[in-house]
Design brief:
491 residues; 24 helices; mainly alpha; 6 strands
């Protein structure tokens, strides 16, 4: 079912995936893990291990777009297997055919499936975390530390998972008045070694303790938390069937539920949701920041259903009906992800056309300025000013009023800084593509991000740049081009 579901969206790569492709390609080309070769290194990614994996694939001669999709699908399968095994551990001897519930829930969830083929690290993170939970629940603590170290190199939330598990493990040892055993110390040592190695690399290459994306995306205080809470609430509303099945766990009188393991899994999942709230959520309707924790919730949902059913045949018949309803409802409720994937397929096709035109029309040393700085920088290879600051140190660290109230990850900008870089082409996000050429007045009527709004307020911008349109095979590219010296600006 997973593969059939994924085949419906063969080319819906996220724009952020192309950022990883660009960093990986520059590493393979000998420039290092940088966004713009020859310029100040900036850490504009938060998926170190995933980017290194893509670099390995590119170094082996593989197309990163295909490699990312297949690696994502492989990781999704591993996460589904982990959810299946975790459920069996939560309800030992009382699962039977209900063992299929967590994998089916995940395979029916378009949020999970589409995030697995969008070229990002989400499915890998999900697989590492669910198998780390299996290691923790089964007492294999050394493996838990290794897997969570790798998860932290994949996404920063891996450190949160480790902190929660370490806290719960410490509380358990304290309650038993026991000392940490050798496997506990090995888990901490393995995790710390991986974390320290990555931190040393970050300091040596980028000169900072945190990635640039942290500065570009956070700093909104209570407004940011409120936005994150709204994001999490919308996502959890789409998972109501899973939550309903999970709610059966505390009431289950049969099935031999391993309460401590269930509490461990639930604690990590709740911490993951709290982390999403704290960072302010995301803008994508795939609920990307929640997806990596879905195998944990799927295992809890399956365990709740299995424990409630127990060995009673009548209950198992009812459980079969509930499972079918939950799977069908999951598919229906995750429809926004499918709509987003279809739009991304169209967007990627247009972006390739635009990149081809830009690469053919501009000299190799031209500078591009754009908000979504993923596909176009990757396909053109041009030096690029990221007007949202994810891959730009100066813009990403600018202090902004009203942080937390705008679109997540798109709140920063600096028109004066963009103009100072003297880009040859500047793209405004909302008006860059249209069926027919747009008049410049359309720019003023569109949604403007910070850099765009500030550029329009600068007289020198209007003096030095002219509005242009270029007809492409399936769309029109609208852009601002730097005037040639003899070109007279409008009066």
């Amino acid at each position: 079912m997973l593969l059939a579901h994924a085949r419906a969206y063969p080319d819906c790569l996220s724009d952020d995936a192309f950022i990883s492709f660009r960093y990986a390609g520059n590493l393979v080309a000998g420039h290092g893990l940088v966004f713009n070769p020859g310029q100040e290194p900036v850490e504009g990614y938060t998926n170190f291990l995933w980017t290194l994996t893509l670099a390995g694939a590119m170094g082996a001669g593989l197309d990163p777009e295909l490699a990312a999709r297949w690696l994502g699908l492989g990781a999704a399968v591993a996460a589904m297997l982990g959810a299946w095994r975790l459920q069996a551990h939560l309800v030992p001897g009382g699962v039977g055919w209900l063992a299929a519930v967590p994998p089916w829930l995940l395979a029916a969830c378009s949020f999970f499936v589409i995030e697995s083929v969008q070229g990002l690290e989400t499915a890998l993170m999900a697989a590492l975390v669910v198998w780390a939970l299996m290691a923790a629940a089964g007492g294999w603590y050394a493996w838990c530390g290794l897997l969570l170290g790798l998860a932290t190199l994949t996404r920063p939330e891996g450190a949160l998972v480790f902190a929660v598990l370490a806290l719960l493990r410490g509380a358990h040892l304290l309650a038993r008045r026991a000392r940490p055993a050798a496997p506990d110390m090995a888990a901490v040592g393995l995790f710390a070694a991986l974390l320290a190695g990555h931190l040393a690399f970050r300091l040596a290459v980028y000169g900072d303790w945190l990635p640039n994306t942290f500065h570009a995306k956070t700093g909104g205080g209570l407004a940011q938390v409120a936005r994150g809470a709204e994001y999490a609430a919308h996502g959890l509303a789409r998972l109501l069937p899973w939550l309903a099945l999970t709610a059966l766990l505390p009431w289950a009188r049969t099935g031999g539920v391993r309460r401590r393991a269930a509490a461990l899994t639930a604690g990590v999942w709740l911490a993951a949701v709290a982390g999403v709230v704290a960072v302010g959520g995301d803008f994508k309707p795939t609920f990307r920041f929640l997806v990596w924790s879905l195998p944990l919730l799927a295992a809890l949902a399956g365990a709740g259903l299995a424990a409630a059913a127990g060995p009673v045949r009548r209950r198992q018949a009812a459980a079969a009906i509930l499972a079918a309803v939950a799977v069908a409802a999951t598919f229906v409720l995750s429809a926004p992800a499918r709509q987003f994937a279809l739009q991304r397929q169209a967007d990627v096709r247009v972006l390739r056309e635009a990149a081809q035109w830009l690469a053919a029309s501009l000299p190799a040393d031209a500078v591009l300025a754009t908000g979504p700085a993923g596909a176009l920088p990757y396909y053109t290879g041009l030096i690029t000013v990221d007007m949202w600051g994810l891959n730009d140190r100066a813009i990403g660290r600018r202090s902004m009023a009203g942080m937390g109230s705008g679109p997540a990850g798109h709140e920063k900008g600096d028109g004066a800084e963009v103009l100072a870089r003297r880009p040859d082409i500047i793209l405004f996000t909302s008006t860059r593509f249209s069926p027919a050429p747009l008049p410049e007045s359309a720019v003023w009527q569109s949604y403007l991000y910070v850099s765009e709004r500030e550029l329009l307020a600068l007289p020198e911008f209007h003096r030095d740049y002219a509005w242009r349109s270029a007809r492409l095979p399936s769309t029109t590219l609208n852009y601002y081009a730097r005037r040639v010296p003899q070109e007279t600006p409008p009066s």
